[in-house]
From TrEMBL:
This is SRPBCC domain-containing protein. SUPFAM superfamilies: Bet v1-like. InterPro entries: ASHA1/2-like_C, START-like_dom_sf. It comes from Intrasporangium calvum. Residues 23-160 form the Activator of Hsp90 ATPase homologue 1/2-like C-terminal domain. Signal peptide: none annotated. Belongs to the AHA1 family.
């Protein structure tokens, strides 16, 4: 499994996931740059994602929903801050209320830094999410973000190996 470490720090309001992949950073970058590839790995296997909009550029927005086994849809968005192809990007990840991708003011927004660095012929990916308060971080932890994100990230191995 690619995920090698998961930690959270309530005082720093961060969740950090580290994963190692047997591919160069450029190949991992391609997963996030292509909405059809990203759909195969964003969200846990039981809740596949569909990206409706995908603009991985500074100021861009990515709108998506995940579908539960029962067919219920959960909406979310990314607002891209910066892009350093193929080394990573930063973005705000939030929950949306509906298919219009209206921001949900009742759920936290995470500021994310995804970085991809060459390591031993492969790539070390570090995913850091920072929340506005310790309570906001605890909310997403209680929602199962560690299990969901880890199972989603672990799907990347099969995709990049193909």
């Amino acid at each position: 499994m690619p995920v090698t470490n998961v930690s959270h720090d309530l005082d720093a309001r961060t969740l950090t996931i580290v994963a190692d992949f047997a591919c160069p950073p450029k190949r991992l970058w391609e997963v996030y740059a292509d909405p059809r590839q990203l759909e195969r790995v964003w969200g846990p296997p039981t809740h596949p994602a569909t990206f409706v909009d995908h603009d991985l550029s500074p100021g861009g927005r990515m709108n998506y929903y995940m579908t539960s086994p029962e067919g219920e849809k959960y909406y979310g968005y990314w607002e891209v801050d910066s892009v350093d192809e193929p080394n990573g990007f930063t973005f705000d990840d939030g929950f949306a209320l509906d298919e219009a991708f209206t921001k949900n003011p009742d759920l936290p927004v995470g500021k994310n830094v995804f970085s991809f660095t060459e390591r031993d012929g492969g790539t070390r990916a570090t995913f850091v999410s920072t929340y506005p308060t310790a309570e906001a971080l605890q909310t997403v932890l209680d929602m199962g973000v560690v299990e969901g994100a880890s199972s989603a990230i672990n799907q990347i191995d099969d995709l990049v190996a193909a």
